[in-house]
Design a protein that fits this description.
There is one protein chain. The relative contact order is 0.13. The protein is globular and about 60 Å long. The longest helix is centred in the middle third of the chain and has 19 residues. The termini are far apart. Helix 1 crosses helix 2 and helix 2 crosses helix 8. The strands form 2 sheets. It has a 5-stranded parallel beta sheet, sandwiched between helices. The protein has a 3-stranded mixed beta sheet with strand order 6-7-8, with helices on one face. Helix 6 links the parallel strand 4 and strand 5. It contains 10 helices and 8 strands. With 269 residues, it is an alpha/beta fold.
Length: 269
């Protein structure tokens, strides 16, 4: 039995379930698998939050429609939770606990036994305090990829096989990951980075982040993309655009894009 068959068997064993569906490749394949295994006994729920980029929400709606699964956009006022808005190094834990608690409540009220999420083997090498929330709710929240030992490369290959349009989509993180720890999450600051990245994506491909350090915006792109942004004319346009969004200073990170670079400023146990 291959891993995907094992995954299908595990999902069938859950009976009725909710998929925590972000619209990324991991949760998209998991949603496809759950629908194959359970049909209408599976429902995809996307946390409709100020931390979610509009493009991510659009991808979730599109993929759910292609799969044919029932899809719910659940309002999630993450920034209204003081512990999340404070944006300390445990923000991800508080956020996951808040979201999964709400999804579990919905699942129980509607006759669903489990909530599944898309953590995979490759996630274990990164700082992910949100996994503690998953562990604390493990009586109801399950991580099927970890149960079958599936990693990112396998997930992408299977997503491509099922013609899911996000199969080669770069990994994304929520908008809160752009703000330096300790800088309070507000809808205005989250919108700043979302609009800044949307503007810059006109000129560069691949991974891109605008890291928010209060008055300063730190732009990370893939090293091969840096020369595209270095012309005097474009630098002036970038500065003008980001200044209008509220940044006083704009800088390029010479190291280029690095996943989780904001974690460099904290002490991690």
């Amino acid at each position: 039995m291959d891993k995907f068959d094992e995954l299908i068997n595990i999902l069938r064993g859950y009976g009725k379930l909710v998929i925590a569906f972000s619209g990324g490749v991991d949760s998209s394949l998991l949603t496809q698998a759950a629908y194959l295994a359970l049909g209408n006994n599976a429902v995809a729920i996307t946390a409709d939050s100020p931390l979610l980029q509009d493009s991510e929400k659009q991808d979730a709606v599109k993929v759910a429609g292609m799969i044919g699964i029932k899809h719910i956009l659940m309002n999630s006022d993450d920034v209204g939770v003081p512990e999340i808005a404070a944006n300390d190094k445990y923000r991800c834990y508080y956020c996951k606990k808040f979201r999964f608690t709400n999804m579990c409540s919905w699942a129980r009220a509607n006759g669903f036994r489990y909530v599944i999420e898309g953590s995979n083997l490759d996630d274990r090498g990164d700082y992910r305090p949100g996994m503690k929330a998953v562990e604390e709710l493990s009586d109801m929240v399950k991580s099927p990829y970890l149960e079958v030992g599936m990693g990112k490369r396998e997930i992408r290959a299977l997503a491509k096989k099922f013609a899911l349009p996000v199969w080669n989509k770069p990994s994304q993180a929520c908008l809160a990951s752009r703000l330096s720890y300790g800088l309070k999450l507000t809808p205005e600051r989250l919108d700043q980075v979302e609009q800044a990245e949307k503007f810059l994506h006109k000129y560069v491909e691949g991974q891109l982040r605008v890291r928010h350090h209060g008055d300063l915006a730190r732009i990370e792109v893939m090293p091969d993309e840096m020369p595209k942004l270095m012309s005097k004319k474009l630098r002036s346009e970038i500065y003008k655009e980001l200044s209008e969004l509220g940044f006083t200073f704009v800088t390029f990170d010479i190291n280029g894009y690095k996943m989780g670079s904001q974690n460099a400023g904290i002490s991690i146990e």
